[in-house]
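Listing S7. Sequence submitted for prediction.
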Amino acid sequence: MIAPPTLLLRVGETTYGCDIGLTQEIIPLRPLTRLPGAPAFVRGLINVRGTIVTVLDLRARLEPARGPSTSGSIVLVRHDERLVGMIVDEVLDVRVLALGDDAEADSGASAITRGVATADGSPVVILDLDALIAEVLLV
């Protein structure tokens, strides 16, 4: 199955992909206002041109043993009428990928993944951004 154009992201040592159509903008990591009582992977809030944006740390969500990201970029994505940020270590490329039929993603992240594809011979875990964001925002 061919996926829509995919934004390739590096989080830790793993390459992930997400639908480029949901991506609005990529901005440098900046200071965040922490939300008391929020899970560790909800890093806080930022103001983007007058819009308050909840920011998730993909490393803290997908690889919790490695700790939160301290550098990288924030990928701003649309979820329904909301704008949500995701901290990634690096934005790599945009590609059209074919999802594998038999590959399975990490079991800890399987509820938020669509499958596994390959790019340049390396695996790419395709994220289901709607599921990831809905998990946090309870929408």
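Caption to Listing S7: primary sequence and predicted structure tokens for the chain studied. The longest helix spans residues 129-137. The first strand starts at residue 6 and ends at 11.
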